[in-house]
Amino acid sequence: MRDGRRGAALFIVLVFSAFLAGLAAVATRTATSGARAAAAFADGVRADELGRGAGAALAYRLATGDAAARRGGAVALRLPGADVTIDYLSESARVDANLAPVALLAALAGAAGADPAEAEALEARVTRFRAEAAARAAPPPAADGGDASPAGGLAALRAAVDALGPARKPPPTAQPAAIHDTAEVAQAWGLSDALARRLLPLLTVSNGTATVDPVLAGRTVVLALVGGDERADDYLQRRHQGFADKDSALALLPVPSRDFVAFKDVASVRAVARVRLADRFERRYEMILAPPPGPAAGTPAPGAGATPDASPAGQDQGQAQGQGRRPVPVVVAWRKLP
């Protein structure tokens, strides 16, 4: 008769072996997941650097290209272990949130799906917001008497806004840049979440003009200009075929909308860079490029009594300005896309 303790010992050995095998499997999975996490982190860092480098590549393209290249296009870069593609379009294709007439903004909201009452309310809110911003930016009036109390507070602000009148709006040239990022628009204008999702992609703060270019604008902006789906489709079809000149592109627009359009070259562009690594890791980035800020008043321009930077970049910038060439744009906004 066999000893039962041998079977018990064998059972304990088997259980302990299974336990060790489980620990080994957990350790292997932990090490593998850690290696994958480290690789994903490294890929993300490299993709981000390439995404920022895409801005420098596009800036060079804009500084050296012709007028057609500055209106829009694509750049493809093949790098060791990575491919980068950049699609960009002039910001004149979007409506400037600070400078566009409120009538155009109301029409744009209607084209984006807002009902007439909501578009009319938006027009009133934008008018009041701009008036309040202009009142805040205006210097305080000088007091006539020495014992007069200084004007201020919410009551004085409301009085200044009401003095402008409901129908008057500040001229675009005198209007402060009250909105510095389109992310501020929803709260500043009191937009609903649904309308904000449809309206914000159509707006910009980098256009720099009160007009929009219908040759570059998207369908919703064209719909706001022409006021009907059939007219918008017809305009886009004619645009795809190619306009003979600017007058031909303008003739298809209703007369009231012609004050809202222009065919000027805007120096700012919006781009989407797609970075794809060799291991199929992919990310997209959105960026806005604009000309560098000019020198402050009273500051001599490079080459006019000032000593240019001794670095190659400084020499190139000084030579470009001295010879009348365009300055190299800079990235003013950059973000990762989901």
UniProtKB/TrEMBL annotation:
Q: Which parts of this chain are annotated as the region Disordered?
A: 289-338
Feature: compositional bias, Low complexity = 296-324
> Which domain of life does this protein belong to?
Bacteria
Q: What is this protein called?
A: General secretion pathway protein GspK
Species of origin reads Lichenibacterium ramalinae
